[in-house]
Amino acid sequence: MSRVVLIGADTLLEHQARILLGDEVVTLAPASSDVLVTRLIWLDRRPELIVFGPMMPTQLSLTLARTLRDLADVLALVSDDPEIVPAASAAGITEYLGHDPELEHVDALFDAARERVARVRGVADSRRADQTRRTPGRIVVVASPKGGVGKTTVAVNLAVGLAEAEPSQVVIVDLDLQFGDVATLLGIPPRHSTVDALSKAAARDEFVLGTFLHEHADGFFVLPAPESPSAADRIDPKRVGHLLRQLAARFRHVIVDTSPGLGEVALAAIEQASALVTVVGPDATSVRGARKSLETLRELHLLPASSPVVMNNVEPRSGMSPVDAAAVIGVPVDVVVPRSRAVLRGGNLGIPVLLSTPRDAASRALREVGRRLDENLSRRESRDGGRAVPRRNAPTKEKVS
Ligand SMILES: Nc1ncnc2c1ncn2[C@@H]1O[C@H](COP(=O)(O)OP(=O)(O)OP(=O)(O)O)[C@@H](O)[C@H]1O
Ligand SMILES: [Mg+2]
After folding, report:
1. Cα(5)–Cα(24) distance, integer angstroms
2. What is the pLDDT of residues 213-232, one digit of tens each?
3. Domain 4-130 belongs to what architecture?
């Protein structure tokens, strides 16, 4: 058992857990779910087991369990009341421990949790998860020279798709600081924003940064753009790189949405990127813009080795096919996303199409973007010894497909 979190433990439980697991035990005082989420997401490893201890009122434990269930593999409750089991199971609790347990009972709980982790994750996965915790995550920047081509749509659906495979390992950052739409397309209130996350306080302290992350119900975290466009004036673009590195130290996937063009903020993000997704529309202006943008990044030696092109909003007989677009851009189009009413409807309702209409042709294509990125980056990481490092001074582009 690599990491056990005790919430609201008494001295006896804490003492016994430490006898069995030493430093692998983290104790947290009872607190609001926001505070606990923040504490948990910045642990250096995902906990395998959370135990709601005897100092917690049972109903509060169940409420917290529902919020925290994606942040650990196994949840356990200290309780002697068998009648609580149906409600506790519904909240995601699978293991139980009586009050004032003997050491052997605590040991048996850890064993049961360990077995469950091995079953759920698979032993290989659990090793991989530990390994990936120690290596920086991937920073995937979504950009386009022209506006309105579908960057935010691609970015939010990427986050959804990746979080399905790796819950609580994905964060999406809206760096379109003036007019960003990530919160709109996800249907969430922009309580805190990327501007808060770029503050000095958050740069210095990850716990402060954690309080600015919005937890989405579908297993990922969000840093939305601020509500007022003028808030963007307050930020120092030099902090963008630091923020993305902070997030990559904690999350396996950092998805970055940008404003159109190659502004200072977008360039600062691209400089950190493991991959750059360029989105183009089915029109000559957008496609020519993409060629110029990729050429410029190549000249600046800022083009990541993984830099797929996604052609979005594609309709038959539009006069610009993916093959035509590839000829203009000078590299193949990796994924073609059809124009789809489901995408538009999903955007208007704040539900990404991957969630609202998973079988739509556009959903399949958007899922393919994540699949190809994952495949390509995994290949590169295993070649580079597990590091999803940004590639500086990499003048050539390697295709994703
Ligand atoms: N494949 C698609 N089919 C239908 N509608 C789409 C498709 N892709 C995006 N849209 C819709 O087009 C609009 C613009 O998309 P989006 O906001 O993702 O573009 P953007 O490039 O991020 O724009 P901006 O440059 O303003 O940030 C949204 O209403 C979105 O729902
Ligand atoms: Mg956008």
Report:
1. 9
2. 998 989 999 999 999 888 88
3. 3-Layer(aba) Sandwich (3.40)
